[in-house]
Amino acid sequence: MGTWNSIEYTDATRGGCYSQLKCIDCHDPHQAIGPRWTRTPAQDEAVCLKCHQEFVAADTRRQHTHHMAGSGGAGCLDCHMPRINEGLQDLVRTHTIFSPNHRGMLESNHPNACNLCHVERSIDWTLQWLQRWYGTEADRLVLGRTYTDRKGPVGAGWLESEDEAVRLVGTDAVLRQRAGWSLRLLLERLDDEFLINRQFATKGIEDMLGVVLEDLGYRFHGSPDERRPGLERLRKTLLGHEEEVRGDEER
Fold first, then answer.
1. Is residue 123 part of a domain?
2. 3-class DSSP state for residue 5?
3. Tell me: the pLDDT tens digits for 123-150?
4. What's the number of domains the chain is made of?
């Protein structure tokens, strides 16, 4: 289900809204986007609500999303256009508009919209709520093959996935949630065999901890032998920050 490179038009044609939605409904062809998306969530969701008018009323939307207004889970894009595509310098939103209870995503252990926010929760926890709210069913035999630990944090499984794209999206997800419990696993991504995974992990860890990894002797573009001493130094220096980051999460 996941399309890992940023191919917006092709992705859009695969989504449920393609017949009604045009590129220029969201993008101004005469204005550069720039390094950051500048439209507000309300502006983005107004495009969705032109067709889905049944969700204009706050009470109706609350019944649909099961999340409080203003929270991430109450918005259209985080659930229906999650950040699972590799951009130039960041993870960007997929333009394949689909439902978060898509069985293919859930059963394959590819990043799903629910656990991109709830990285610390298990897939069984996610499926419990999806079944209760939307009647979602998943093949338990398939789940048993694709998830090595159905009771553990889904985010941890993504960080250790055999699929390099899943590791990349998982890294971005736990960093966005400032998941301090994952720091030990995040440091392993600094030794990922794919340079872009190491690059994204470096940027995210630096932003989360307020450090410069080069100052500690680590360069993401180095060879395995060049990275090894820096990684050892990072493990000794940074793993003590796990509780500090957890404190930030609680605040």
1. no
2. strand
3. 999 999 999 999 999 999 999 999 999 9
4. 1
Residues 189-228: tens digit of each pLDDT:
999 999 999 999 999 999 999 999 999 999 999 999 999 9
Backbone φ and ψ of 61, nearest 5° = -65, -40
| Residue whose structure tokens are 């360069």 | 219
- The reported pLDDT for the residue numbered 35 is 78
In a domain, 10, yes or no: yes
139: left (phi over 0), alpha (psi -120 to 50) or beta: beta
Nearest to 3 by CA among 130, 98, 101: 98
* 138 located within any domain: no
Q: Rounded to whole angstroms, how far apart are CA atoms 27 and 33? A: 8
* Domain interval for residue 26: 1-98
- Predicted confidence at residue 245, as pLDDT, reads 57
Q: Residue 218: which of 203, 164, 194 has the closest Cα? A: 203
The alpha-carbon radius of gyration of the chain (Å, integer) is 19
Q: What is the DSSP string of 33-72?
A: --SS--S-HHHHHHHHHHH-GGG-SHHHHHHHH-S-TTSG
237 is a domain residue? no
* CA distance linking residue 224 with residue 232, whole number of Å: 12
- Rounded to 5 degrees, what are φ and ψ at 85? -110, 140
Query: CA angle 102-42-74, nearest 5°?
Result: 40
- In sequence order, what are the residues at sequence separation of 6 or more whose Cβ sits closer than 8 angstroms to the Cβ of residue 188? 159, 160
Q: Let me know: does 80 contact 113? Beta carbons within 8 Å.
A: yes
Give the count of beta carbons closer than 10 Å to the beta carbon of residue 85.
24
